[in-house]
Amino acid sequence: MAADKPVRAPTTTVDAATAIGHAVASQHVGPARFDLAARLWAFPLTLVVLAVRQVARVFAWVPGGGLAWHLRIVLGIVALVQGFQRGGDVALGITTASMVAASYIAPAADRARRTVVEREADQTVARRALLNRW
Q1: What SS3 string covers the chain?
Q2: Which of 53, 41, 33, 103 is nearest to 74 (CA)?
Q3: Do 29 and 122 contact (CB within 8 A), yes or no?
Q4: In this structure, how many other beta carbons lie within 10 angstroms of the beta carbon of residue 2?
């Protein structure tokens, strides 16, 4: 019974100092993630994302939904091409293709930003000699 539970070493003061130092360094590297101005600017997009996620949750049982999401670039290209065809709406084609492009660019930019913040925080902790197990 007791042998089934993983053994966890107690947290030392050095571990706690390292974790706190890393969190503080992450905040000093760049602007806070939840800055009020950024949140207000992104609020309309946040509402759209929430609505899309709720609809996606309702239709998650549909086979091929994940495949369709991964192939959304095809939709963007088709919309762009059709927008430039005779009788097509150029603005709609460009807008649709831009939204599809943003659905690829935004997550990639967020991952890149988080990687930079993490690396800079690690370097700050290492320079301050707080690095123990990180």
Answers
A1: CHHHCCCCCCCCHHHHHHHHHHHHHHHHHCCCCCCHHHHHHHHHHHHHHHHHHHHHHHCCCCCCHHHHHHCHHHHHHHHHHHHCCCCCCHHHHHHHHHHHHHHHHHHHHHHHHHHHHHHHHHHHHHHCCCCCCC
A2: 103
A3: no
A4: 5
Angle at which helices 90-127 and 72-83 pack, to 10 degrees?
A: 140
CA angle 116, 118, 119 (to 5 degrees): 65
Per-residue pLDDT tens for 60-78? 788 887 787 788 899 899 9
Q: What's the pTM value of the predicted model, to 2 decimals?
A: 0.54
Q: Express each pLDDT in 14-29 by its tens digit.
A: 777 777 777 777 777 7
Q: Which residues contact 107 (CB under 8 A, 6 or more apart)?
A: none
CA dihedral 124, 126, 132, 134 (to 10 degrees): 70
How many residues would you count in the chain? 134
